[in-house]
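Tokens for Short-chain dehydrogenase/reductase family protein. Go.
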Amino acid sequence: MSFPTFGASTTAEEVAAAFCNEIQGKNVLITGTSLNSLGFETARAIARFANLVIITGYNAERLRLSEAAIKLELPTANIRCLDLDLSSLAAVRKAAEEVNAYPEPIHVLIHNAAATIGPFKLTVDNLESQIATDSIGPFLFTKLILPKIYAAKTATYTPRVVALTSIFHEYAQGIDFADIRRPNPEKYQPFQAYNQAKSANVLVMAELSRRAGDAIHAYSVSPGVALTNIQLKPESIDIFIASGIITPDGKPNTDNFTWKTIPQSAATTLVAAFDPRLDDKSGAYLDDCNVAEIAGPNILDAELPRKLWSTMEKIIGESFVL
């Protein structure tokens, strides 16, 4: 079968329409699906064709608003809400127990959720909020629901795990392993913490792919730059303005950055989740709906994925063996 060529301006709906046969019958779990987010747009585009879309969030009221918005547009969509606070390892374990009690397998797991880019904040587990929510919590969640992911494997289908990263991973100054385990507020810089967390997602997906072999396909995705609710949170907006990403009046800085719409930004996630042309490219990094070169020189060390995996195992207190 011939599929279209996608690029930076492709929308999530266009990708979903192209891969409607691949989406049909699939059960997809997407983290971070509040309104005006990439996760919500991803869920909305998939829900038109999927058997089941599981949307998650740490705020139950906002999660139900997302469910209602999708059902209003697509009354026949099968949407299930899952309360999931990725900043708490105990909450992750509780949510994973719920998922493992589902009767359905999980064909695609999409790690879309991200913490607020704001002042230094420790989680209940004494971890820095961004690395905990963006990377460590998803690492544990993936580990715990492996039985459900493995259950989707057939002779003709391999389940997928997708994690969102960022074009800004190239600015990360390596991985500070000591700081991940014992965060130092004096060293904290909001965007360096963000860049490190997004770099970690590239590394974990590459290592997951290597360890899983043919059992699971894993990909990291850069959605590009879009104006979502994460930039407009009260604790974030001043930081984005100071960085020049957002103008003083709260608008996107189009002079220094190329912006996408939310539907355009969500498109690459759907490519990673469903494009059959990626079957032999597990571990790849995607940008603008295509496989791309990893830009960050500080994350190309072959030993980094293994070291990060081991560090996260120590933090969660469990071995992640595939």
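The longest strand covers residues 52-57.
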